[in-house]
């Protein structure tokens, strides 16, 4: 029986984008025993991976002692394959029959494509998540019974410079779910990581009883279980955006100084809306003031609304998957 060591990112979004490569390994080596090392934040996303033998949350320690700890945990095993997306010394110093390392791409490409190149895969396998029963039970408890197709929004990010203004998120949600909106009458799930919860408060306050408050209340696996029920996700460039796209939700990602060609939501249901301000100008502003709160102001509400409506319309035309995920074949929400 093969044993595989898979070393992936400590960042949530990058870890999600690596799951396509992991899915390829589970299908190519169905009897393999997998050890997965990743950051503590994305670790819950890997707990139900088929063939998982050990999950090692790689908490950062001073003087890079986390890498020493990982080497000590892995050096006693003879690995059939090591896939190291961190390009670390550990991947080189543990005994292995075969090794594959991440390398910086020679040309700009999406992170999913860059990961696929580690094993020479073309086309690149799409990210996927293995959601377990415990996460779905948590989603049942968090989303009120009887909630139909809902809008999900992610108004925060791990850096203030990537956050679209909260008042625009609130107005967007109210327009999409208003009487003449494509999701008329729908509830709005608001998601944010625990440290970002207060920054989402203005959106929750503006939505009032229409909001489903999921801010700071889910780990990434439970967030995935909640998001897979959504009709649409709109959010900043963040790990939540990649989770939404990975579970098949039509996803609109908002990008200011970020890199949508590398980190846009992957798949046919992903769309990006970028700033009207040239990226070079935004990056110059970041260099001058990393705390500039106006970096996302160039993303207009109308463009986001138009993109969301167009994406929902496209999802409605190919509603077999959408209906099964969101509300069942007889309950596909009508488009207005």
TrEMBL record:
PANTHER family: ADP-HEPTOSE--LPS HEPTOSYLTRANSFERASE 2, TETRAACYLDISACCHARIDE 4'-KINASE-RELATED. Coiled coil: none annotated. This is Glycosyltransferase family 9 protein. GO terms for biological process: lipopolysaccharide core region biosynthetic process. The lineage of its organism: Bacteria, Pseudomonadati, Pseudomonadota, Alphaproteobacteria, Rhodospirillales. One of its GO terms (cellular component) is cytosol. Keywords: Glycosyltransferase, Plasmid, Transferase. Pfam families: Glyco_transf_9.
